[in-house]
Amino acid sequence: MRKDKSKLMRNLTLSIFVAALLSGCISNPPKETIKAGVKPAIVVTPEVRAEFDAAMVQMKAENYQKGIEMMDKVVAKSQNNPVPYINLAIAHSKLGNLKAAEDNLKLALNLEPDNPVANNEYGLLYRKTGRFSEARQLYEKLLEKYPYYPIVHKNLGILCDIYLRDYACALREYETYSSAMPEDKTAKIWITDVQTRAGK
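User: That's the sequence. What structure does it adopt?
Assistant: Structure tokens below.
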């Protein structure tokens, strides 16, 4: 049973990664991944898509300010698409512009409240700004809808481990993440470390 669950999580992770490449967002699973499969992409013109891709090239090269300037032009032409807002939020967060990051996440979530990437990024923002309880609530709510989204298990584990000192939660989330991503050897180190500190 555990082996079958681990295989399912890996398959879903692969589907999430493919969707991420198509959308331009890191770890961007489509809405209702678990229940309904891949969600069709929002249709944009070739011109807007080219501008979006060019902005993403800058962001992936860590030229965040240039990427933000280019992505702002995409947003002006595609205001009903949450993906550019999410990428703007990520870029602003990298530059330490946390207010701008939060504003863009709110815009993304106004368009698509259940967007898993936007919610995951909001959880990271909560953590960065010391709102640990809000981060935990957001992650737990997100996992109710997307129980096989590994990065959220990892982020919740880190939150519980380092910031909340809830070792039972940390161990559970690290183990879930590790079973989905066995190639990530760091997770096994974290598990052993938490077990030691928890006296197990």
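Residues 1-41 have pLDDT under 50 and may be disordered.
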